[in-house]
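Reopening this one. Same input as before:
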Amino acid sequence: MKLQHRLWVVWSVGLAAYLVGVMHRTSFGVAGLDAAARFDAAPAALAGFVVLQLLVYASLQIPVGALLDRFGARRLIVAGALTMAAGQLLLALAGGIATAVLARVLVGIGDALTFISVLSVVTSWFPVRRVPLMTQLTGLIGQLGQVLSAVPLAALLHGPGWTPAFVSAAALGVAVGLAALAVVRNRPPGAPAPPQAPSPREVLDGVVSSWREPGTRLGFWSHMGTQFSGMVFALLWGVPYLVAGQGMSTGAASAMLTLLVVAGLVAGPLFGEFTARHPLRRSWLVLAVIAATAAVWTAVLLVPPPAPRWLLALLVVVLALGGPASMVGFDYARTFNPGHRQGTAVGIVNVAGFLASLVVSLAVGVLLGATAGPDGYTPEAFRIAWVVQYAIWVPALVGVLVARRRARRKMAAEGVVVPSLRAVLAARRGARASSRVR
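Same output, byte for byte:
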């Protein structure tokens, strides 16, 4: 097989593993109300399922980054797929909360192993100029896993039932794990062998060095501020909010989740191309997405429910921008760190959005439990609960601005001066005026 063809085959299988991983990750979101009835779970307990899954995911990101630098992407992708499949099979058979919690822990472990490993495949196999775009495409096409949750998995859940739905999800996980074992390779044939695996002391030094890099911290805060709102919406509270908080049918709520994925697929390549063409302006994209997300949420929460459908659709579209914008954080990790510690740096960045998602998911559940009426979730309870997001947006915005200043200061010391946006616009106006004179 020609190298060019093999590149696309390897990427496609890695992408399939990530796509199915996203389905596993988001499957509890469409099953939230069913899980509440099956396990007799209160809102805070229901949030606890996802919070624990996210806690496992976030806490493993830096160790997984170190494992990636040591063992390579192929082993981690296979292990991740099979671990998530085991978690879904256990959930299919779970009769109580304890077993279900263990199942979601397994999903969190497998999920942690998958995404940054697939990104490593992208970095190793594609030319440098195409990496930002392919990173966006990987992240965004992978989000079609939410559609697998929202449509076929939901149909199985409300048709044949809980056990057939999650057994089917487990079987799909095993299939992509075996495909990854057969097809995925860590690097192209003939590529230089990676450096010798670092010692535990060198791994720790790599974590410290990566965090000290201003670009890594810029990626961390960028990922935190952009990803969490859409993640919480898709992972757990979106469908309950649209159904119980906005009066939608379950089918209409699932359609909104599909819109979230489609909008992200449209935005992803555009964001990736912008990042590749304007690497010195990546932070403006991040800041714009954080501001837009906060502004539209503010509009929705100020309108007495049910909000107009067009406004809810706009909210979903803006939330979809968070995923592509969060990928900019990985681009910072890649471009500001040497190759031997890029896995560690990406792991640090990936912690941020999931840590924020964890905190917000739990806080929403706790507030819903404290403010819900006797019949369960109420629109007013959701309006109160979603306000917790502002506690993440503010520090994330400050973190991006501070880290950006420090990163630019370091770049200037290395001879790369980032002109102000005002200077760039003035130069363009001057160039246009000069061309008209000629």
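So the earlier flakiness isn't reproducible anymore. For the record, The chain has a mean pLDDT of 85.
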